[in-house]
């Protein structure tokens, strides 16, 4: 039984408490928040959980094995570092921290102490993304040619971060989860339509060593909500629409065929295949429930989470590179490769 | 009554012949093609139209006032130049020619001789694009923030041109028709998933002096056909789906509101408006019929067409710049401004 | 301030408690349920509300002005009658009772005592149905030609009632709310695909004195969920899709035009109008919140609710007639007219 | 090589001529029409085909083996009978004739002479309906529970026939093609919203001996076009949307499961299965091309067509019964069983 302390009981914290509390292998020991009203809301819903306005109490409590952090982004680094220093495993809401330097320090600290550091990239734990990953691992798509995603709606302009830190972060975490390789460079463009406000619309292209390319389009100023991703492979192609109530994933047995001609390698004729479409049944299990199970499992066994610190780091490195490219009107920014692909973790324990 | 000679009776030529033949103010004098079988097909359908395998005969015929060219792209420049030199008005299938230098020579020649030079950017003459233009000219959208378009499907890989010359050309012509300003720079990325084949997938961002931005996504390797354009304005926003049988254009009375605060110009609160959606009735008139009427009218009155030589030139300049940017992984390429906006023609005569 | 007692804290009761508790003009005095576990769930969420397993306590409590009943259908009659006899106003979950005879006794009792009797036809209080009613009252649709509705999905087979008492009841309440007249006869067909189970699929036609016709199709055994209603008028027509997240109502400016010819009244030529489509913005206010406000208002002022006892009676009479017609393979069953249309109440107070 | 004579070159005739002309096993000998303008249109398109305004010439021509009739409905009987009497095989546009008595005489005459009599129920030859039939014959759906279809749009009010003779006829032919049994009774309701005009909206229920039920909803006064059919089986269910450009058929692996309990046959618990959805690739072959091939094959081999005279008769008997039920406000009308199911023909030769 893993003892959990949760910091922050605002928007996301209650979901963490609810899921850790209903998980058979974890127990919520205490909740910390600076706001007394939020603590009493917690007490009303979960009378058995103690609360405190002093985060340090959780760190001192030997029954707390792990800390889940759901506070504003600018506090992530300091809180996570303190928790690691106190010997606690850590789960942090995305993004892991404000800079890649901060994340590197957290990753090093967790490594040094042999503690689990996991970032809450919730989309990876949705049944839809899990199903796409499963299809890719079964090689049903063939060689992956592209990932092309649009994530837009009207609203939730934020004043401190731009649209890529808010929305593209989801796609970047999915891309690195699904693909076998890391991007080597990024080109991005963005624009702000409100004077003095950060970019509310952006387009990001990720380049890879292989033929694969990824593109992410994000927009806070769209008349309709769009959550649509195309994954194109040499064998099959997927359309993933997260707004569909049931058929979120459609797998198309479509593609091109190449008929090489002997006399000239450069000549070819392209043919087209059009086969069946198939929408696999997608479980309706709550993503956060799977994520909490995975975190508890990793803490118990020492396994590395699929959204471990390194994956959180890579997402932030890409966001930083994309921000530089945006400032430069699309000029490509190279990404350094920082981890062997073999360290990639894909299976939920 | 304007006499028309048509060169090329392959895929598009028959449509030109049919529309010029049924237009009250034009008469098709002759059709030229190198393929005798195509000429007899023409004779069967239009026994009253004479045919020839010698293009020069059309040029020599004094009853021919204008030449419409529907031949392969690499012949456009030579044929159009010969027609202008023979004193004929000219309508050319898109793209006008293979390079901007060629187009400039055609534009100059037409100008010098006072002849009409028009490029067949058919989409401009669709009732849907005409309706969007009308809404913009009525200032129903307010300040235009963005144009964001996706044009993809499976198929029609071409071996001589890449996907932007095939598909993005439509959006580039629409963008310059709808917007009040020319782009000042372009950033584009593209990739080929078939070795030895030109790019089959590309994303283009156009930058403008104003806050406006345009983005075009094109893909020959998509499992489903998409023809969707978002136009975002400060007052209203449009979703234009060309695959919808009837409600191609949806106008959303949605957007953000800014509540400036006196003490600090940098502070503002963003509010959201969500009003009605409205799908104006769209005529089902064939685009080419409107286009042919417009060409005949311009030839008769000397008015400049909405898709005149300069607009064809600008489209090709953007395609050339986008190609350079693609080769450079998104690095921005500046576009020179070549014409005063006042020369823009928007109303169909 | 109206004091409310709520009977039944199962599926629907908690929603009633929450909405009456947050309403400014009502106070929840007590909740009654036979199940102690449910009562303690209530206490945990609403510590300020007293609970009892003895319904009679609520009736004896002078601070209780009105009783809301959310118990199984077979208890509705007895509980509602007791409440009326105790001088309490009553709100009952649909259907009001098991037979029209029972409902008539409740209506008479409420009338005799001058008490408010309201049935919880929640759909009438949805912003979508309110908007359709508003458009009809503004005569935007013209003469109403038809109401044609499909309500189907997979699941929730019930063992005690058939599909029309479960699903068609919604449409029957909407029909009588929207239309200016009562049906005069009903023809219905139904079938059961599970031996020993009540009908899981049915089609009902309602006949009116006028040209208007209503049709309701319901199905518990559909592969996909459908909630779609067409309302056709002489001027405009509506498609109402309750599953659409935002554009639930689409108003089509379409229809036919009749060109009478003088010489012969029987000859006419029918023309077709195809105009704009318009999707009015629909509020997202919770239907039950509006309903609770309306009940409290009616109790306070003595006004008749839009879903008063008579309207609940009429719905049950139609259900009973439809059941007889189903048993007779569609043979029409006449409905007696029981109330002057002038007693119809349409405006939410 | 089968020689074909075609009567009527109006709306449908040209399609028959084109398809018989391009079929390798048939040759169009002549076309007859009373309108000289139509005949010259035919000559222009098909100079090799002789034309006549005298139908009798086709009958006398020994090179004509079969007659295809595409004239107004009231002429079908007389023309078809004359053709059969002249020893010609016959293909007639739907409906076969105006009354079941007429059809019976044609069926008898064809039988007596051993000639092929086929009705042009084009929908049976669409790749979509062929695919559904294939799935049923493979027993992929299990026991068929229902067929429920909606066919509506705005327009094409007809003055001589009502909406069921115009639209429901398609569904009735599909139903008898797909199902293993004939309906035993019909209940139908209909209404006319234009004084003096036939019914423009109708709903038909077909009853079968088994649990199966069929329902058809047709409407000439709908704001949007709908062509949607649900086929529910004990194993799988189909949604067939004829307006979908590519995924016309969706097969849902969904349904209910019954858990019988030993002690009481009347008690059961219903469970729900929700599995994958699958959209088989549908050929884009023109239905009329398949139909013409089938007719030619049946004429050549003496095989009975899937849309033979008996199937045309059954459709008209159901239409007549439905008309009587409509006049009687839904009262059921029994259908007599006129043919052993073993005579049913399902496979396209």
TrEMBL record, chains A, B, C, D:
Ranges of residues in domain Gfo/Idh/MocA-like oxidoreductase N-terminal: 3-121
Stored InterPro entries: Gfo/Idh/MocA-like_OxRdtase_C, Gfo/Idh/MocA-like_OxRdtase_N, Gfo/Idh/MocA_Oxidoreductases, NAD(P)-bd_dom_sf
Single Gene Ontology MF annotation: nucleotide binding
Domain (Gfo/Idh/MocA-like oxidoreductase C-terminal) ranges: 134-333
Organism: Bradyrhizobium retamae
Name of this chain's protein: Oxidoreductase
Pfam families in the cross-refs: GFO_IDH_MocA, GFO_IDH_MocA_C
Signal peptide location: none
